[in-house]
Amino acid sequence: MFGFHVTIPGFSNCFQFRAEALILIAISPIAYHEGVSAFVLLVSYLSAVTLVKVFVKQSIDLGYPFPNTITAMHMLAVCIVTLIFERPSMDEALKVLPISVLNGLSLLTNNSAFLYGGVAFVSMIAANVPFMTFSLELLKGKRSLNFASAFSVGLVCAGSVCCVQGEVNVSLAAFVLATVSALLRAARGVWQHELVSVSLSPLRLVFWNGFWSGCITLVMMAASKEGLEGLRSLRTVSTNAQIGLLSSIVAAVCLNITQWYAMKAVGALMASIIGNLNLILVIALSIAWLHEQVTPWQFLGVLLLATGTFANKMLPACLSAQKGKEAKEPASEKKQ
Fold first, then answer.
1. Angstrom distance (rounded) from CA 83 to CA 213
2. pLDDT tens-digit profile of 163-182?
3. 3-state secondary structure at position 283
4. Concatenated DSSP letters of 209-274
5. Which residue, 29, 44, 277, 304, shows the most beta carbons closer than 10 Å to its own?
6. What is the pLDDT of residues 196-234, one digit of tens each?
7. Against a cut of 0.70, is the pTM above it?
8. Which residue ranges traverse the bilayer (predicted)?
9. Total of domains in the chain
10. What angle do CA 206, 51, 264 make, to 5 degrees?
């Protein structure tokens, strides 16, 4: 993780803070309420999310422009690694298939949205996945409507939108496609949590998710111009591109495993909220590597993201403790 300077136009002061410190503070209540192991798991998950993006981008920039082939190799590696530790159960194969289909459709609609709208606009819609996850869980009766959860989800969504605020290229087609993509991601998260909650071994589910995702990717490869060209180019691509590709495979394996375990540990809503914290690392990387400046909107977004994530765990606990204290006081007065 990277530290960075923040210079806000119109302000005389230069703010310096570290992205890793903000993220660790934001998810610190996890260590208290869920345990240190869950905290370490979420840190690993966030790191893997960021590293996959960095290494895939590096591989493409260094002369290996085959995203479908890269994804297929990621899924193959996930299957091989999970097979080393756990033998998959055939009974769970079809249970995981809908999750993989939802994931594939989400990626397809999200990528299609970029054909009609700008990156900032599509990202703003995608930033509201926690709100959609929250709404789906309400509809399914998995949680009750309360101020603490609604307030923290609102902060996270507002912060995410601020982080990607920029020139917005709006169109109805982009809005519909991006909204459908976000809904599919939210539905996948809720469904995934329900499945992993009753499974004794998430590793078996990781295998089947990798298997079905790999199959879907192979179909996409065959239907696109990419075909087998990515595999043929492996021998001729530069060494640096090969290193980036190998690094992305390692990061992808870590990501797929930690994502399922994180979902089981903290639930669909908290997992989607923590996933949005990745925007803080993206901003940090853009400054450290691309020497970009943080805008006032992004600075505000980072603070809202961290505050909302922190509040999602701490606020309900504080309100519950306050209610418990108030309930004890009348009881003690009666005894007197």
1. 16
2. 666 555 567 787 788 888 88
3. helix
4. HHHHHHHHHHHHHHHSS-TTHHHHTTTTS-HHHHHHHHHHHHHHHHHHHHHHHHHHHHHHHHHHHH
5. 277
6. 887 767 888 899 988 998 888 888 888 878 788 888 888
7. yes
8. 68-85, 113-133, 145-166, 203-223, 243-262, 269-291, 297-315
9. 1
10. 35
